[in-house]
Design goal:
Layout (H helix, E strand, L loop, with lengths): L5 H24 L6 H14 L3 E2 L17 E5 L2 E3 L15 E10 L2 E10 L5 H20 L6 H11 L6 E2 L4 E4 L6 E6 L15 E4 L2 E3 L5 E3 L6 E3 L5 E3 L2 E4 L6 E2 L8
Helix pairs in contact: 1-2, 3-4
Length: about 260
């Protein structure tokens, strides 16, 4: 989507603020003994109580055989993305790491954001994985400006993981957003600078570095949505929706906990 009016920009900013509040509340609710289904129920309630719609619920991505059955994606440990929280719900345990990925629709405008948190205290390697993935997202922001190419973002994410021992996932990508959950351009997490679509002012995109403790390979589960690491290692995922602007990207889904 390309933002073309001040009114559209204001709606997107408000949508992002609302999503940030919901995700902060969900992150605080993560604790040993909590089920993934409880988190999904809470996510939907918070969104609807605000007068908005959960963007993922009943959304059918291109090529999928069925609609997504939940409002929230809850991805635990070796689940990379799209963990379905209300089909065979998981009970969170101390030391787990949990990806929370959520979309919100406010006045017809869609925003998308994710973070990974620990369930209580976890191990040093998991903390390092989460920190490296969050840092890769910040590195992507540095090059997300008018005139840059999609490949510049991809390369920035890839290089942010250099020397960390962690593997950016090649099979999963960031994307355009705003009018639909997934739009062009597709934004890989590895790539070559100077290639791909040029970023234009007003473009709305969701950047989402995803990295594994082990190898980059992932496998798709039989539910047709959930990706897991092929080697069983843990994975982390961070995502924000932003608008490309002349003065630098406007990151609309920043959470209060990040400020």
């Amino acid at each position: 989507m390309i933002i073309s009016t001040p009114e559209e920009r204001d709606i997107l900013i408000e949508a992002g603020r609302r999503l940030g509040v919901v995700l902060d509340t969900l992150a605080e609710a993560v604790a040993p003994g909590v089920s993934s289904e409880t988190l999904d129920t809470l996510a939907e309630k918070l969104i609807r109580d605000g007068g908005d719609e959960p963007s993922f619920l009943n959304y059918t991505p291109e090529g999928s055989s069925r609609a997504y059955p939940a409002s929230l994606c809850v991805s635990v440990n070796d689940v990379v993305v799209h963990g379905i929280p209300n089909e065979a719900p998981r009970i969170l345990k101390m030391g787990d790491i949990v990806g929370l990925d959520l979309g919100l629709t406010h006045k017809g405008m869609i925003v998308d954001s994710a973070l990974t948190v620990s369930v209580g205290r976890t191990d040093k390697k998991s903390y390092a994985l989460m920190a490296a993935t969050a840092a890769a997202l910040e590195a992507a922001f540095e090059v997300a400006k008018p005139g840059a190419r999609v490949g510049d973002i991809s390369r920035a994410i890839e290089m942010a993981f250099a020397g960390t021992g962690f593997s950016p996932v090649k099979a999963l990508c960031g994307h355009g957003v705003g009018a639909y959950v997934h739009e062009e351009p597709t934004i890989p997490n590895v790539g070559r600078a100077g290639t791909g679509e040029e970023l234009a002012p007003g473009m709305v995109i969701a950047l989402e570095p995803i990295a594994n403790e082990g190898g980059a390979a992932v496998v798709l589960s039989s539910n047709s949505y959930t990706f897991r690491t092929k080697d069983g290692s843990r994975s982390a995922h961070f995502e924000h929706t932003l608008v490309i602007e002349e003065g630098g990207p406007l990151i609309v889904t920043r959470r209060a906990s990040e400020r």
